[in-house]
Design a protein that fits this description.
The structure is a homodimer.
Chain A (H helix, E strand, L loop, with lengths): L8 H19 L6 H8 L3 H8 L2 H26 L3 H6 L1 H6 L1 H12 L4 H22 L3 H19 L11 H7 L7
Chain A binds a DNA duplex through helix 3.
Amino acid sequence: MGARVRLTAAERGEEVLAAAVQAFGAAGYAGTKTDEIARIAGVSQPYVIRLFGTKQQLFLAALQSVCDRIEQTFREAAAEEPTLASLGGRYETFLAERELLLVLLHGFSASGEPAIGDVVRERFGGIYRLVRDLTGASPTEAREFLGTGMLLTVMTAMQVLGPSAVPVPWADEVISTLGDPA
Amino acid sequence: MGARVRLTAAERGEEVLAAAVQAFGAAGYAGTKTDEIARIAGVSQPYVIRLFGTKQQLFLAALQSVCDRIEQTFREAAAEEPTLASLGGRYETFLAERELLLVLLHGFSASGEPAIGDVVRERFGGIYRLVRDLTGASPTEAREFLGTGMLLTVMTAMQVLGPSAVPVPWADEVISTLGDPA
DNA sequence: CCTAGTTGTAATTGACTGATAACAAGCTCT
DNA sequence: AGAGCTTGTTATCAGTCAATTACAACTAGG
């Protein structure tokens, strides 16, 4: 515990939120302990709870945060070129920041909790609409796009994508198709 | 309790496994209590543990079971007509038996546990290969097919599909595209 | 029928974990 | 300087949950 710096609650909250995204991304909602989040953030476990009220509220905050970032990423891509191919190119960003898609996936998995399900439905619907609005894609095109995105997401979760991936031949085969026409 | 019947360990194990598929499908690996599985199966919690050793081994058994059933469903479809469209028609089966896809999804989410990740990679790779072998689909076609499948899976998880679905407009729009060409 | 194996439960435990309470240390403003 | 608010911790609790143990009930084979 070296030179602990005092931050405002808002600043510390940001740090804890970042730690929460990491931890929830790795182990899911039920599988993550607030203690682990506290360890990553470098604060005590009770302080994590005080900053966000409950573990569930912290998860919801993490979920909102990653959805914001996903949408922002898509907006940036569309600003360069408003096509599905352009947005699709950003999946490299998501592979580099695995937590984004993983927290979203764990949100799907935890949709049994009503409060989480509500947010998940709202935000995923928003992403679907955003993709269509930004690119002018048809429903069918948007479905194909998000389907591929979900496939890459679950492949990220099962650790066959990215730098520390477990090598499996079929994953390479799938990746090699990504540029291909739908 | 009532007229408790004595079964062989193998028979009771089947019942417990079915209960486990239901429970894990609803709440995920970490989120499910062995006690809940026992309640559904109508046996005591310690007996659930004794039949399968550990909660993790029970989850793995449930995962293997649903993967077997998914593969069997695809094989049946291919026997009728060996095309992707034919296999795709079986997603209605999966929407009726939500637990199948949900347990698989929760397997993805729990891939952080090494023992679970190993099985998930193995089985999902097997399904990918099976789809290609049964239909002669190209890697790109198989990717599109599984991508759509994963999208439907996460939509099932977030409860926007199926009979007891929360109605959201975008879900209907996605569903309406399912017959469309890729 | 009776003994040996099998099926099943009740009781319990020990570790874990989210949350609360009480308190300590710092900052700010007058 | 010191009162009052903010930041943060330590200590602790109450509930949960997978797993173990010991035991009870049943069944089949000789």
